Structure formats: C-alpha cells, structure tokens
Amino acid sequence: GAVVSQHPSRVICKSGTSVKIECRSLDFQATTMFWYRQFPKKSLMLMATSNEGSKATYEQGVEKDKFLINHASLTLSTLTVTSAHPEDSSFYICSAFIAASTDTQYFGPGTRLTVL
Amino acid sequence: SQQGEEDPQALSIQEGENATMNCSYKTSINNLQWYRQNSGRGLVHLILIRSNEREKHSGRLRVTLDTSKKSSSLLITASRAADTASYFCATDVQGAQKLVFGQGTRLTINP
After folding, report:
1. How many CB contacts within 8 angstroms connect chain A with chain B?
2. Which of A9, B35, B72, B75 might form a disulfide with B62, Cβ 3.0–4.6 angstroms?
3. What is the pLDDT of residues B68-87, one digit of tens each?
C-alpha cells in the first residue's frame, strides 16, 4: 500500500524558534496533501490543504503566517511552525491523496512537537 | 470544523464481546471512512463506505451507513485486546477533497 512518511517523528524546541516538518509520499505522487493537528485525547483538526505548485488553502482560524506550508514537488510538502510557542505543542499529521484517486487518503505517522 | 459526532466518547468492554461505535454528520457526503489510532501514533485506514452503499464488511468489522439519518456505525465483533485504540469516522464532504473527522471513540478491551 501507499506509504507516507514524516520527519522528524518527534521534536523539542525552545520558544521563539521555527520548526520544519516534512511529509513525503514514498511510492506515489500526491498532488494534494493535508496537514492536521491533534491535541491530546482530541480529534484531528484540518489546518490546511497543500497543492503542488500553488499556495496552500488554510482553514478558518489557522494563521497562514505562523504555519508556512510549501508543496514544492509531487512527493514533498513541508510545514514550518514559525516562532513557536508552548501552545503550538501538538501532534501534527499529514496525509496525501494518490493523484489517480480522490477517495483514499494515506496518513503519515505524525510528528510530536513540544515547545518549551 | 468538526462535523462528526461520535458516541460513545469512551467504551470499555471485555475481550470477546462486540463493540459498536456510532458517528453522525451534518452535510452531504461522497463517502465515510473509519480510522483507528493507537495512542500517540498515526492513523490506520479501516474501511470506506460510499454514499450509495448501506453496509460493508471487512474481517471482524461491519460498517453501516444511513444517509437519510446522516449516521454510520462501526461494529467490531469478537474484540481482542489489540483492538484497544481510538476510532474516528471521517467524511469526505461533497464538493471538497478534504476529510472532516469526528470526535472519536476511545475503545478499551479488557482481557
């Protein structure tokens, strides 16, 4: 089956620094990737839709200048949390559509971000 | 925004029993999917049911969909300790590619 990877799996950073999270589709091309965040014991909240070669579409309430998304190729999307604060600590998960199918999303294993 | 409501929020049963989780949604959908998530891990896709389907089976899983009531249920039969996880429904909203997740049910299977 299709595989999506995320790197890093876990990151701890100091308040005020920026953190980049990568999402890669390993064996398929993904024209569309999605970024979610999940707080402990809560559900996934969609942050933004990342389309290859164009600007990301952010959900209401998500600061686009704080959560920078770049989808430079059909296999890679990055999420950069800029000037991170403790309240940004969360589990960030990406997913990707296979280009030939719009029914199936494949999820990455997630990245645990802790901001001190 | 979250459009799915799941109940119960938490469910604890004995190994071997059946577990039923329910999901309700608000808008028209193309399909509904169920996912499992073990603590601190990514999501595992379990099953997809399309809007024109009413029931689907996969191993010990049985999913129903009632579009008139905008609801779905996930039944896990003969539960095992390894089924302990959180289960989420997600709807593929018509007109949009994105998935909207329910609040989830935390299932605990007691040995």
Report:
1. 54
2. B75
3. 999 999 999 999 999 999 99
